[in-house]
Every structure is written in C-alpha cells, then in structure tokens.
Design a protein that fits this description.
By secondary structure, the chain is α+β, with helices and mostly antiparallel strands. It folds into three domains: 58 residues; 114 residues, Uridine Diphospho-n-acetylenolpyruvylglucosamine Reductase, domain 3 (2-Layer Sandwich); 223 residues, Vanillyl-alcohol Oxidase, Chain A, domain 3 (3-Layer(aba) Sandwich), CATH 3.40.462. Helices cover 21% and strands 27% of the residues. It has ten helices and 20 strands. It has an eight-stranded antiparallel β-sheet with strand order 15-11-13-12-18-19-17-20. Strands 5, 6, 7, 8, 9 and 10 form a six-stranded antiparallel β-sheet that branches. A four-stranded mixed β-sheet has the order 1-2-4-3, with helices on one face. It starts with a strand and ends in a 36-residue tail after the last strand. The structure holds flavin-adenine dinucleotide (FAD).
Length: 431
C-alpha cells in the first residue's frame, strides 16, 4: 500500500527527548490498518503538541492526513470529524455559526485525537470537566485492525480507557462531540492581583460567578511576596447583535530559528516576572476569545527560545485538602534549586466522573511549570515527584519526560494490548 513512511528525528513540543523513528502518514483507514498490522512498538501521533515523550515510539502513526470534517450540524452544535482535524480548523468552521468548544486547552493547534487521548481540560474544569464530558462517540482501530464504535454506552470500558489513555488502546480514527453556543467572540475578563500565596490561592478558590479562571504565579518571588501572582477570571460576553460571529485569530509573531543557547534562564525569568504584572492591570476589561484562550499561540515556535537542549514541562495536580501546603512546598523546592520555571500556571479542578479514571485532573489544584532543560533539572523533577506523591497527587502524562513511572497513577495492566508503545512500558532510546 502506498502511503508515506519516513525515518526521521522526532520530538514533542518541548524538543526533549529526541528520538529516531519511522513515521507513517496513512490517508485512509485501510492504510492505517496496514501500518498497524505490520508494526509493533507503535503509537499514534496527532500534531505533536504534547511536551515530552507521549507521542514518541520506534513506529509512529501520524493522523495528520485523516482530516475530513464529516458532519457539522449548525442547529444542534454536534460535530463529527476525523481524528487529525485541528481544533483551529473546527473553530474557523463553527464560530461563524455561534458555536465554540465546551472544553478547550490553552492551544488550538492540536488534533481531535490528541484532545481525546489526553482528555484535555481548560480553565473551566470545575464547571465543565474534561473534553470527554462532551464526547458522544469515536471510532477506534484496535490491535487486530478491527474498528470499534465506542460511546458511554457501547464499549464503555474502552471509551473511558481511551479518554486520557494516551494512545494505549489503539488509533482513534474519528469522533463525534457537542459544541456550546456563544453569542460573542469577546470575553469579559476580571483580573485580580495577589500579593502572596495565601491571597492568590484564596482568590482562585472564590468568585464562582466566573466560569473560567487561571492564575499566573511569580515562582521566584520570595519572602513576604512568596506565591504572588494574578488570577484571570472570565465569562463569555453577551451578544453583539445579529451579525455572524467572526473568529479573529491574532496574527502570530514567530521565533524564526533556534538560538545556540537558551534565552530563558533565572535572570530573564526574573525580568519577565517583574514586567508581566505591569502588562496585566487589575480590573474588568474585554478580551477577544483568541487572546483569552490561546495566548501562547500568539508566538509561533516559542519552544525554540529554550535553545537546542529543549525544555521540560512539569504539571501536577494535588487533591484539594493537600493543595495549599503541597504547592507551596513545590514552589519552595524550586526556589531552593538552581532551576527556575519561565511560566507557572495554577488552575482549580472539580470532580471527575468515576469512570474517567485516566483523565489527569482530580478535584483540587494543578500547577504547570516550564523549565529550561539544564543539567540539574531532573534532580528537581525527582524532588517534585516526591512532594507530589506524598501529597497524594499525580502528574499529567502528556507533559511528562522524566518522572518516575508511577507518577501518572496509571495501572499499566489495564492496557493489555502489547502493540502500543508508551513511556510507562519503557522509555524510548533518545539520541
Ligand atoms: C502551549 C500549550 C498549551 C497547552 N495547554 C493545555 C491545557 O490547557 N490543557 C490540557 O489538557 N492540555 C494542554 N496542552 C497539552 C495538549 O493539549 C495535549 O498534549 C494534546 O494531547 C496534544 O494534541 P496533539 O494532537 O498535538 O497530540 P500529540 O502530542 O501528537 O499526542 C498526544 C497523545 O495523544 C495520543 N494520540 C494523538 N492522536 C491520537 C489518535 N488519533 N489516536 C490515539 N491516540 C492519539 C498520542 O499517542 C499521545 O499519547 C497544551 C500544550 C501546549 C503546547
């Protein structure tokens, strides 16, 4: 069968680890079946925007040629498409009809297959949960090449193992899910500054009148300012009249090449953190949808700023009762180390359905940290693993590149099919 298979260097968004892999890009389901049948140690890959090794294996099946928009009902807001369609492509199609995602991550350049396999969450997890909440069904190609229709009723066990299952159940071929109505492409944003950790945590925990919330933390502030930051609350704005909505995607800047060394270090981070708050005054103001949900999409290839060694993202979630102290301990451990995260984002999470046991968020709080890949970073990762484990928390596997295998709190035995490769079964050899 004729479809492209290329031997190449491959990495996730953080450019670490880098491996050599065979990457196939089948364009139809027969070609997908052919590659699945012929290869072991295989994993699906969407747009490669997971940070670490989630979509790395000796054999990689890219879904980027499975990009058919199968059906969109502009009246009910139900959509069906192939797994390689990007969220950005869906937005361009549905926003003019007054629809948006119920749950979106902070990036729109990911595939629908990737959104399901990581069961992504957004800034409204307490009220809307993960992507799986609005997922009606999907078609999954399993190890034998059979296509299984999975929903919350049919093959429900496989449905829930696939949501957050990081590709370990097979290849998601297509999916059907529900969208939410919107009447404006503006958001009403309410920004609160907090002078210390107690204020920041308290601010994020309150104000339930806002659907969306996420906090930026100045991870380097010490002493009386320890844990200071800002919380960005928002709701969808009310209607703008009867004109069709227009998705105004900001024209992105670009980091045109990878500098020979990382531009991100403790000193540039300190300057960035000091400037950051000045650009985000407290108060109420409108923000366009693209800027509120996808601020990092505003700079293409921003991952190159970390230089050729790449970076490491560490995101963990702690149960509510342990979150205040546990996150403070993690911030303290970072301050005691030589490493400094450039970006630190705190989110609040709500209950998850009992069946969604592979979804990352648990009721509590998560912290996401981006570190340059220094020589010392993995001793800090081990220290953070200890803190997270002791506080009964877990890490987000779609970000992971170096944590202990147990940290995702996944029963590997639940994923019996031997074909699908994963970091939990053994990390791939890096270059
Ligand atoms: C700037 C930025 C911001 C982000 N913000 C958030 C956020 O707010 N919330 C959040 O939850 N995540 C967030 N993420 C993570 C991102 O949403 C996930 O990693 C997502 O899975 C990436 O999708 P992808 O299409 O690039 O998949 P890839 O990175 O290619 O793959 C991710 C995983 O999905 C599996 N997979 C992909 N396609 C399929 C398929 N068709 N069948 C089976 N398995 C498949 C892969 O095997 C892999 O395990 C962010 C990432 C970036 C870079």
């Amino acid at each position: 069968m004729d479809y492209p298979v290329k031997h190449q260097k491959l990495a996730g968004w953080a450019n670490y680890p880098v491996i050599e892999a065979d990457v196939a890009t089948p364009g139809n389901y027969d070609q997908v079946r052919d590659y699945v049948a012929k290869n072991e140690r295989l994993i699906a890959r969407g747009n490669g925007k997971s940070y670490g090794d989630a979509s790395l294996a000796p054999h990689v099946l890219s879904t980027l040629a499975l990009r058919r928009m199968i059906h969109f009902d502009a009246v009910t807001g139900e959509i069906e498409c192939e797994a390689g369609v990007l969220l950005s492509e869906i937005l361009a199609e549905v926003i003019p009809h007054g629809w948006f995602f119920y749950v979106t991550p902070g990036i729109k350049h990911i595939t629908v297959g990737g959104a399901i396999a990581s069961d992504v969450h957004g800034k409204n997890h307490p009220t809307h949960g993960c992507f799986s909440n609005y997922l009606i069904s999907f078609e999954l190609m399993t190890e034998s090449g059979k296509i299984v229709h999975c929903s919350k009723i049919e093959h429900a066990d496989l449905f829930w193992k696939t949501c957050g299952g990081m590709g370990w159940t097979g290849i998601i071929l297509s999916a059907r899910f529900r969208l939410r109505p919107i009447r404006s492409t503006q958001m009403d944003q309410h920004t609160v500054w907090a002078d210390n950790w107690e204020q920041l945590f308290g601010a994020l925990s309150g104000r339930d009148s806002y659907e969306y919330a996420a906090a930026w933390v100045d991870s380097l502030a010490a002493g009386a300012q320890f844990g200071r930051g800002a919380v960005f609350f928002a709701n969808h704005a009310e209607g703008q009249g009867s004109e069709p909505l227009v998705f105004q995607e900001k024209k992105p800047g670009n980091v045109p090449f990878t500098p020979p060394v990382s531009l991100i270090n403790r000193w540039s981070t300190r300057i960035h953190n000091t400037m950051y708050l000045r650009k985000k005054p407290p108060g109420d103001y409108p923000v366009d949808l693209d800027s509120y949900f996808y601020p990092l999409d505003g700079v293409r290839n921003w991952n190159r700023m970390y230089g050729p060694r790449g970076f490491v993202q560490y995101q963990f979630c702690l149960p509510e009762q342990n979150a205040f102290d546990g996150i403070a301990r993690a911030l303290q451990a970072i301050q005691n180390s030589p490493d400094a995260p450039f970006l630190t984002v705190l989110k609040r999470h709500g209950e998850r359905p009992a069946e969604a046991k592979y979804s990352f968020p648990i009721k509590g709080y998560s912290l996401a940290l981006d570190f340059p890949r220094t020589r010392s970073i993995f001793s800090l990762v081990r220290k953070l693993d200890e803190i997270v484990w002791a506080a009964e928390g877990k890490i987000y596997l779609t970000k992971d590149a170096g944590s202990d295998k147990k940290m995702g709190r996944v029963e590997v035995a639940d994923f019996e099919e031997k074909k699908w490769w994963s970091a939990l079964k053994g990390r791939v050899e890096t270059l």
